[in-house]
Amino acid sequence: MNVLINVLCCSGSRAARRTFEFGRTHVVRPKGKHQATIVWLHGLGDNGSSWSQLLESLPLPNIKWICPTAPTRPVAILGGFPCTAWFDVGELSDDGPEDWEGLDASAAHIANLLSTEPADVKVGIGGFSMGAAVALYSATCCALGRYGNGIPYYVNLRAVVGLSGWLPGSRNLRNKIEGSHEAARRAASLPILLTHGLCDDVVPYKYGEKSANCLSISGFRHLTFKSFEGLGHYTVPKEMDEVCNWLTARLGLEGSRA
Hints:
Protein name: Abhydrolase 2 domain-containing protein
Number of strands: 11
Radius of gyration: 17 Å
Largest sheet: 7 strands, mixed
Strand content: 25-35%
Order of helices and strands: EEEEHEEEHEHEHHEHEH
Shape: globular
Number of helices: 7
Strand order of the largest sheet: 3-5-4-8-9-10-11
């Protein structure tokens, strides 16, 4: 089932509305007691199906995984070639423009997916590469209590995981969070796990390291950053073991190691 998300944006003195059509969502049901739900986001050009198969194989029977598929759109870094992407992106740089509309639309889609989960179930977001970027952007929205467009963000995230990714909108994050006691409190209580391969030639390791440093100085105190020797832009069992152990500890999961 495809989902349409409308985002209101301002262009000069007039308001414009962009519509994003998200692809199919794949769900992996928990094999044991349902204690947590995590939306997991794929990378550029991928889809929710491929990650759902990997996540189903993990020894985490108490987690429900929701794996959506990003909209198909032209992507600047690919010369305008259309593919599945959570937002538009050009060259990775510290001062490049951000696609705030695309980021907000994807963050809102994820929040909608989590909004119907039972009240006693802990919710989180994870992702790989561009998916990790949206997961981290969602973490900042959670801390600030609003999306980039100012609309309130209501989801109470309990864990965020980013593999081989980067943090969009890092330049002003510290000032925004330090300017609000509530934002600082929420940032300090949100656990985040970041992992990155030292040999990543797609999203270089320095971007993962910079993202971790930015989050840390912005007040995200429960931040774990793990580097992996010899790892490129992909995942390996050792890295996923780290994710499993971290989620089990942070979410207080029962019986995750059979």
